[in-house]
Amino acid sequence: MTHIVVLSGGLDSTSALAHTLTSKPPAEVAAVSFDYGQRHRRELDAAAAVAAYHGISHRVLDMTGLLSGSALLGASEVPEGHYAEDNMAATVVQGRNLLFAAAAIATARPGDSLVVGVHAGDHPIYADCRPGFWFHLNEVAAAYGVEVLAPFVELTKAQVIATGSGAGAPLSLTWSCYQGGELHCGRCGTCVERAEAFDLAGVVDPTTYQDSEFWRTAVAAGR
Amino acid sequence: MTHIVVLSGGLDSTSALAHTLTSKPPAEVAAVSFDYGQRHRRELDAAAAVAAYHGISHRVLDMTGLLSGSALLGASEVPEGHYAEDNMAATVVQGRNLLFAAAAIATARPGDSLVVGVHAGDHPIYADCRPGFWFHLNEVAAAYGVEVLAPFVELTKAQVIATGSGAGAPLSLTWSCYQGGELHCGRCGTCVERAEAFDLAGVVDPTTYQDSEFWRTAVAAGR
């Protein structure tokens, strides 16, 4: 009986992993990540670092060629500014969460669980982060004897960070930036969302941003 | 608005494709097949031949390495005899229909439909062929603006053959045998099911089997 945590290397999945480890020993928890040709490949290194930190097994599945057409895959520019619906529509990847969950379920044995770190802040932008999506996917996965858990689906990102921080998640190892540079850019939608969420959670942000001030302006403009 | 038909090259999906083409022009119908390292790779040639027969576009997605552990992938011997539950359990592939549907949905645009040829004869063996599975997957796919259609989900295989034959499906081009030889072996579970279903449908079976008599004995023994 293994809890398979979908680990992108970002704050949400890293928090979901730490949250899972608070109730399960490391031997019963495994992480799976996806190489889909994403522009921000730095997140795969972050996922590996997080898994190594916890001493759990980590598998990277090759999904190259099965997804297309998003700014995250180089089809267009990654939007800057606040993490709001209009702004982030270019980062939607058709079929992404379904395909990732399906590939993870294909690695699972009957009795295993799949854990995903989706949260309420993603609902307006990504339909495949909403509670109904995960409810029905859990019913689908039952055909394979697999339970799908989305423990943060009703939490805000700030609440996710507070939960992850409380569970001992190595948040300093995580990666959010969609630009894929050496440092977090501080200007893209996910960087702005990241900095704002740490601030709202009252947790010290361990991130070094190339532009560490932009987020306050973007949040003020986005509200 | 494209109807994307999952085409394995077998009787069910070939019938589903012909059934779809009776209500849609070829330009609005496309086929997608999956290379998952299956032992019976001959079915991919059959799928290509069926798509070419109808003059529709056909895409083969590479799913190699994402599925494992079934007799269809060489993990054990393909069972002979009647297509019954105990006998065919070795041919279950964990996550298969979910992964295939997910990959097809990832190629779809909002407004497109996904068509699958699953039928009632597969329900006892394959949980991912049952109506509930496809009902919930349709709800999941709604997140991407895609409708999932399983027109044969309540039909027997004989009824599928009758429907496909009536819709002009090129059933002589299809491939069922799990052994992957030059001819249909006539002895594996799907060969027996194929021969029996043509007989029950009252449609002339165009197949040349290596062993053309075995199915009658196997059906008699399986009942």
Write a brief caption for the model.
Chain A is α/β, with parallel strands linked by helices and about 220 residues long.
Strand order of the largest sheet of chain A: 3-2-1-4-5
Number of helices of chain A: 8
What class, by secondary structure content of chain A? Answer: alpha/beta
The count of β-strands of chain A is 5
Summarize the largest interface: chains and residue counts: A-B, 32 and 33 residues
CATH top level of chain A? Alpha Beta
**If classified by CATH, what would the architecture of chain A be?**
3-Layer(aba) Sandwich
Global geometry of chain A: globular
CATH topology of chain A, what is it called? Rossmann fold
Output the CATH homologous superfamily of chain A.
HUPs
What's the domain count of chain A? 1
* Largest pleated sheet of chain A: 5 strands, parallel
Question: Gyration radius of chain A, to the nearest Å?
Answer: 16 Å
Helicity of chain A, in percent? 25-40%
What does this structure look like?
The structure is a homodimer of 223-residue chains. Chain A is 37% helix and 10% strand. The mean pLDDT of chain A is 90. Chain A has a single domain (3-222), classed as Rossmann fold, CATH 3.40.50.620. The first copy, chain A, is an alpha/beta fold. In chain A, helix 6 (157-166) packs across helix 7 (189-201). Chain A has a five-stranded parallel beta sheet with strand order 3-2-1-4-5, with helices on both faces. Chain A starts with a strand and ends with a helix. The first copy, chain A, has helices at 11-21, 42-54, 85-88, 96-107, 131-141, 157-166, 189-201, 214-222; strands at residues 3-6, 29-35, 57-62, 113-115, 147-149. In chain A, strand 1 (3-6), helix 1 and strand 2 form a beta-alpha-beta unit.
